[in-house]
Records
---
Amino acid sequence: MAVVELKNVVKQYGKIRALDGVSLEIEQGSCVGLIGVNGAGKSTLIKIITGLALRDSGDANVLGFDPGRRRPEMLSRIGLISETPSLYPFLTGTEHLKLIQNVKPGISDAEIDGILEKVGLSDRKNDKVSGYSFGMRQRLGMAQALLGNPDLLLLDEPTNGLDPVGVRDLRTIVTDFKAKSASTVLISSHNLHEVGLLCDSYIFIDKGKIVAVTKREELGDDLESEFFKRIEAGTSPDTGNAIDTGNATGGV
Ligand SMILES: Nc1ncnc2c1ncn2[C@@H]1O[C@H](COP(=O)(O)OP(=O)(O)O)[C@@H](O)[C@H]1O
Ligand SMILES: [Mg+2]
């Protein structure tokens, strides 16, 4: 069953076509890496899926809903680390999660404590976020995303700015989450090594178009060279413009 289904989605920001006819399907229970360079359209795609941005044309179905309608029933089943996490400096870590408890039904205080433990913030949970390091803020963002055991977990460049310990911990947290639930995970990254370790399939995006959709076993060990091959295969050396690759559509 597809949890996310996009058909020919276009998103334009002024003259910039951030998404140029994106079609894709993400199957329930899969862990998908969304791979592309800066400006490829990763964040825009994630915003369209969550309803944070509205598409100009095309169809979208997320967990049975049109994300453009921003239904609370849909949003309460999604966990998100956005490219710009919004945290309140004057609130503590625990208080941030209590805000989510107010809008997502059925989250217990014990669950909040459990999540804070899992992301390694237990001993600082009652401190104000203004005193948190960058890595601690990222960990709190992860806790926000995971709270309530979302059916769809969307992580937009979650390893950005993390130190190696933070990256390893994030990997453990996501692996653990996948092992314990039937949820679907989408992780955007330009860090191929990270995505390669976590995901079982990959969507390659470049200049707002999906240029390839592939399963892990179809790729060689060298994900990085595979990446450049695929990105460059979609680009004409003469014009620098994207060649029509038939607009690769895929179910992953
Ligand atoms: N709010 C916005 N206003 C104008 N242009 C935007 C906006 N958001 C994204 N863009 C443009 O859309 C393109 C895709 O951006 P984005 O989805 O953020 O890429 P990525 O996340 O892959 O780095 C870029 O050219 C970017 O400058
Ligand atoms: Mg981005």
---
Amino acid sequence: MSERRTPSPQTLIFEKGYEPQRSEGAAVPPLFRTSTFIFKKAVDGKRAFELAYGLRQREQGESPALIYTRVNNPNSEILEDRVTAWDGAEAAALFSSGMGAISSTCLTLLRPGDTLLFSDPIYGGTEYLFRKLLPEFGIRTVPFPAGATEAELAALAEAHPGTRVIYLESPANPTMELCDVPAARRVADRRSRAGRPVTVLIDNTFLGPIFSRPLALGADVVLYSATKFFGGHSDLVAGLAMGKASFINAVRATRTIMGSMSDPDTAWLITRSLGTLQLRMEQQQANTARLVELLRNHARVKRVYYPGLAEMGARQVALWKEQCSGAGSVVSFDVHGGEAEAYRVLDAVRHMRLAVSLGGIETLIEHPWSMTHADMTPEQKLHAGFGPAMIRLSVGLEDPADLVDDLARALDAA
Ligand SMILES: Cc1ncc(COP(=O)(O)O)c(C=O)c1O
């Protein structure tokens, strides 16, 4: 017999982390809606807490006992096992939101006096955390352009010897610029000292886990708003952090104490959504291609922002070819004019929904300047490369012919 093939992620996500015989033979994982778990014996409770608080090392083959749903739960554990399949991560931690994942991971790594370098522009909530909250705790946060070269990043890290984290969001929200992940890795390695590693974090929400796998490119931790493609149906809020098991265990300890754990219902829903994640992302991408074509050829559109397009510039095209296997289903564009002209398009669409968020099966349209990125100053937004004429689209699974018709009519009407 020939050797058994290594199963692909699309197969593993139906199998990993679940033994039907431990759940009455249920073919799919049941929902464990419970806040607490019963110990067989007092000594089992003692041993479970010793492990949870790091008072002893895990024994060979020992899996942490279930204690309390803020710490762990079968639904979150099954999901955490399964989601690692695409990114090739050793471990994952589920959170109550993408911001829960981002803030808990940053708080695990950073202490007063440390510096975090972050790619700019960045999602508005992350921006608030970096520009407002972390500095109040004595952590310096320094932006750099999303498409920065290795030399630029190296110079910045050298100017900030306290650098402990290089934080990337790629593609950048909403300008769709890619960051150079291997360059960030090399800079981090050169700045790392014994006992003082520099960690590369990356928010992979827009393209991952199907079209971008940054752990393979050198990132230490990959972060997601699982509210987006993982959930995929605009009906839940959740987050994920993935990376080396030793680090994810530390992040889980932060999660337990900060209370940023998700709940069993949400974990169950995401587990169900995993089966169609690849299909959804591929079809949403195909639908987006139709809209990108329309936008690039429409007289009312000044510029399109989408990974891999020539108008993103030669370096961006090269980064896309090196780092991504697709361009995804989020696209931004500038109309001629300003906010008034953009609003006319936003108010004229009929099938697309005027709402923030992305990655769901319905097409969403929004205005980054006054909505998702409202908290940045006008100068910060212009400096980061977007203005009031920009519109961001997250393309869903409607018939693409209807979407093209809808957008073309809205642009014509404006
Ligand atoms: C790129 C990106 N990262 C993180 C987040 C935050 O995720 P959540 O809303 O699940 O907290 C968002 C939300 O829109 C996002 O777009």
